[in-house]
Amino acid sequence: YIGVLMHEIEDGFDLRMDWRKLEKVVANCKGLVPVCVQDIESGEVLILAYANELALQTALERRLCVLWSSSRGALWIKGDTSGDYLELKNVFVNCEQNSLLYLVKPVRSGACHTRDEFGRTRKSCYYRQVSFDDGHTLAQSRARIFPHPSTNIRNYILLSSGFLLGVTCTVLATKQRRN
Q1: Would you call 53 exposed, middle or buried from its count of C-beta atoms within 10 A (0-12, 13-18, 19+)?
Q2: 141 CB contacts (<8 Å, ≥6 apart)?
Q3: What angle do CA 140, 144, 145 make, to 5 degrees?
Q4: Hey, which residues does 36 pair with through a beta bridge?
C-alpha cells in the first residue's frame, strides 16, 4: 500500500499535498531549518529540505550538499545512495537566520530521487505544476527558466506543449557597469 501511495504521490497527476509535513517535522526532529538547494549555474531550485547544525557543519567540511532527513531522522548526504552528489559552492543565511540557501553544482545529471518516464534521474524535485483551472490537477512541467547574471543570455524554455522557445535576456545592470 505504501509503495502504491508513494507512486501516486511522486508520479501521479492529482494534487496530494502533505499539509501536515511541518507538524511531522516539528514532532520528530528538533533544531531544524529549511534549506533551499539551488543550481549555481542555472539558478533552478532543485530541492527544499531541512538541515540541523550537524548537517550544516558536515556540508561545510565536505563541500557537499548535506541535509537532515526528517523522514528517516538521520544525516542525509545527497548522492550517497544515487551517486547524484551536489557539490556545495556557497551557503547563504536569510535575514532572520532561520533558513539557508545552498548553491550547488550537480556532479551528474539529477538531484531528485525520482526518475522520469525514460528512467533518468530528474534534475529537480519540482517537475509538475498545479493547474490554475481546478487547483487539484498536476501537469508535467517541462518549462525551465535559467536566470544568470551575465549579459545576452540565450535561454531555452521547453514549454509543456513541446515547443522550444528561445529567449534572449539582457541584464541592464551588467551593461551599465560596462559604460
Answers
A1: exposed
A2: 126, 127, 128, 129, 160
A3: 150
A4: 48, 101
Given a cut of 80, whether residue 151 has pLDDT beyond it is no
- Please give the grid coordinates belonging to residue 159: 514549454
Q: Tell me, what DSSP letter sits at residue 106?
A: E
Select the highest-mean-pLDDT range: 26-30, 96-100, 137-141. Answer: 96-100
What count of other Cβ atoms lies within 10 Å of the Cβ of residue 136? 12
Q: Which of 121, 125, 142 is nearest to 49 (CA)?
A: 125
- Full-model pTM: 0.73
Neighbouring CB atoms inside 10 A of 106's CB total 23
Q: What is the pLDDT of residues 81-115, one digit of tens each?
A: 888 999 999 999 999 999 999 999 999 888 888 88
pLDDT of residue 159: 30
3-state helix, strand, coil in the chain (%, to 5): 20, 35, 45
Note whether 91 and 60 are within 8 A (CB): yes
